[in-house]
Amino acid sequence: MTTTACFIVVSKNDIPIYEAEVGSTVRQKQEQAHQHQFILHAALDLVQDLAWTTSAMFLRSVDRFNDLTVSVYVTAGHTRLMLLHDSRNEDGIKNFFQEVHELYVKTLLNPLYLIGSRITSAHFDTRVRALARKFL
Amino acid sequence: MGREVAESCIDGVIIEMVSAYASRFYSSKPDLAARRIEAIGFQVGHQLSERYTMERPRFADHLEAIKFICKDFWSELFKKQIDNLKTNHRGTFVLQDNHFRWLTRISLDPAAVANNDATSESESGADMTSMLLYFPCGIIRGALNNLGISCAVSADMTNLPACKFTCDTC
């Protein structure tokens, strides 16, 4: 089963600090990667409005484009974890977000990590991809 | 995440950090030492607030964030809640802790306080304590900054061991 999925983490200053293509298709994602990024960034406005209406962290699907949906998870520090996907597995996506949130908190706890800067750790990248294979 | 550490170790580390910055690193520039200690507290507060807000839903407004600081955040750090919260509804909050844990191990030498000749001793005793208080001020400022409220936090220790933290959002 091939799925397309693109995952980005946007800090509270609206700067993307991490992005990864985590879908299981190999060939077509190279041409469509820029399109995925464009869709995710365009959805940021909608997230902004929706985030203030609810106190939940997991905002389900905020936007649609063709057959791709954007799901968002907002932390208390207003860091947005955004996933562009074509699957319908909401529980899996929610668990994926919770696990990545834990990873993100661990990254923050690193005293040498400048808050709001890009996450460049290869370990973080490996773990996120492994979680994506497991839950998506 | 969330392993345990002995409380005496925390007390020891904090007291030694404050003393190192105030007496050794920046001994001639006490306000610079205070800024560095507050900056360390800022980063710690930022990280701790991110960790403690993971399980709970997000905050609807400023007052809820302050109440989180008074209840959950304070009880995670000091095993008790803030005893008194006052606000003037125009952006200033006063958090009062009647028995601030980190100050319970600090003693101001009573002989030096009573003695007029040693006024410099009593001053340095009070100075040391106020240096120590910059760290929790930084923690509160860092936590509130992460929750979206930028403010200035100051501490008032006129009657130990009670301590009042004033958060000014404007």
Automatic annotation (TrEMBL), chain A:
Pfam families cross-referenced by the UniProt entry: Sedlin_N
One of the protein's GO biological processes: endoplasmic reticulum to Golgi vesicle-mediated transport
Recorded GO CC terms: cytoplasm
Protein name: Trafficking protein particle complex subunit 2
Organism: Rhynchospora pubera
Lineage, uppermost ranks: Eukaryota, Viridiplantae, Streptophyta, Embryophyta, Tracheophyta
Automatic annotation (TrEMBL), chain B:
Protein name per Swiss-Prot or TrEMBL: Trafficking protein particle complex subunit 6B
Cellular component aspect of the GO annotation: cis-Golgi network; trans-Golgi network; TRAPP complex
SUPFAM superfamilies: Ligand-binding domain in the NO signalling and Golgi transport (SSF111126)
InterPro entries: NO_sig/Golgi_transp_ligand-bd, TRAPP_component, TRAPPC6/Trs33
Superkingdom, natural source: Eukaryota
Family (UniProt): Belongs to the TRAPP small subunits family. BET3 subfamily.
GO biological process, one term: endoplasmic reticulum to Golgi vesicle-mediated transport
UniProt source species: Rhynchospora pubera
Pfam families: TRAPP (PF04051)
